[in-house]
Amino acid sequence: MSEIKVNKLSPRTGTTVTLGDSGDTITVPAGATFDSSSGTLTLPDGSVSLAKLSATGTKDATTFLRGDNTFASAGGDNTPAFQVLLSSAQSIANSTFTKVQLNTELIDTNSAFDNSTNYRFTVPSGEDGNYLFSYGIQFLTFNATRCLAKIEKNGVEIHAAELNDHTSSDNASINASCMLPLVATDYIELFVFQNSGSSNSIRGSATEAFTYLSGFKLV
Q: Which residues have CB under 8 Å from 151's CB, separation 6+?
């Protein structure tokens, strides 16, 4: 094999240098570096396979390549997600807001709901975003001019729903939902109010959603 040793190849005329002819293979030996960092290397469309990319992450049938050169799962999961219930009846004093003791977890993907002490959902680190919450309460038979359920964010009312002039012997139910922007350490709690003139109970069940709170992160 012939060998030419030079320090630089330049066109004799014009501005173009051609290496080889059509169909030839130009080989850069192992260990050598073809440095085009100071210029432009033009490749034919479709000539770079996925295996040649230096993207981080795992490439497979369930991921896609993002603009920041990383592989990410398509769609993503709506987590953190949780659904919690009041497992048995809870007494609610007259004309005061009472926190609902949601003590039974049906779902808690990130262990982010405290179902034994504060009865609250706390946004985990790195899970900032928009969240959708649904909540509901059911009073046992009673009469009242006002029944109200609300959720608080960091101790401040952020959403509420109420039932006025309930004078039926039927159970009083309130159900509502809302979407909230949250960041890490924000917490959500459910409260209830009634003014029947005496204490009354909200209905609980360990398997049925009579009194509940649920939520998940939107993706």
A: 133, 135, 157, 158, 159, 160, 178, 188, 189, 190, 191, 213
- What topology does CATH give the domain 81-217? Jelly Rolls (2.60.120)
pLDDT digits 0-9 by tens, 130-176: 999 999 999 876 677 788 999 999 999 999 998 876 666 667 889 99
Task: Decide: 97 and 191 in contact? Cβ < 8 Å.
Answer: yes
Q: How confident is the model at residue 78 (pLDDT cuts 50, 70, 90)?
A: very high
Instruction: Note the pTM of the prediction, 2 decimals.
Output: 0.69
Tell me the three-class secondary structure of the chain, residue by residue: CCCCCCCCCCCCCCCCCCCCCCCCCCCCCCCCCCCCCCCCCCCCCCCCCHHHCCCECCCCCCEEECCCCEEEECCCCCCCEEEEECCCCEEECCCCCEECCCCEEEEECCCCEECCCCCEEECCCCCCEEEEEEEEEEECCCCEEEEEEEEEECCEEEEEEEEEEECCCCCEEEEEEEEEEECCCCEEEEEEEECCCCCEEECCCCCCCCCEEEEEECC
Q: Strand pairing partners for 144?
A: 166
Domain ranges within the chain, ordered by starting residue:
81-217
